[in-house]
Amino acid sequence: MMHWHKRNVGDYAAKTGHLTLLEHGVLTLLTDRLYQSEKPFTSRDAHRICRPKSKQEKAAVDSVLEEFFTNTST
User: Fold this and answer.
1) What is the pLDDT along the chain (74 residues), one digit of tens a residue?
2) d(CA 32, CA 26)
3) What angle do CA 48, 53, 58 make, to 5 degrees?
4) Which of 46, 32, 41, 39 is nearest to 3 (CA)?
């Protein structure tokens, strides 16, 4: 299992500079989970991982999923 990953700060900034602070947190949580488990997760899993409480937080999870992750469920 991979328990670490290299993060190039220049590449990250170039691809995520438009994100809100909240969305950066969501992306970090989901990316860390993906590298830690090396298994795909569902949208429902993503909400469990991030534990959003408000409508704004739930929307941030959905936004990050849509932009940075591929839905492979059919």
Assistant:
1) 667 778 889 999 999 999 999 999 999 999 999 989 989 999 999 999 999 999 999 999 999 999 999 987 65
2) 10
3) 70
4) 32
pTM for the full predicted model: 0.89
7 by DSSP, 3-state: which?
Answer: coil
Are 22 and 8 within 8 A, CB to CB?
Answer: no
Tokens of 39: 């298994």
Cα separation, 2 vs 37, whole angstroms = 8
DSSP 35-69: HHH-S---HHHHHHHH---SHHHHHHHHHHHHHH-
Phi, psi torsion values for 20, nearest 5 degrees: -80, 170
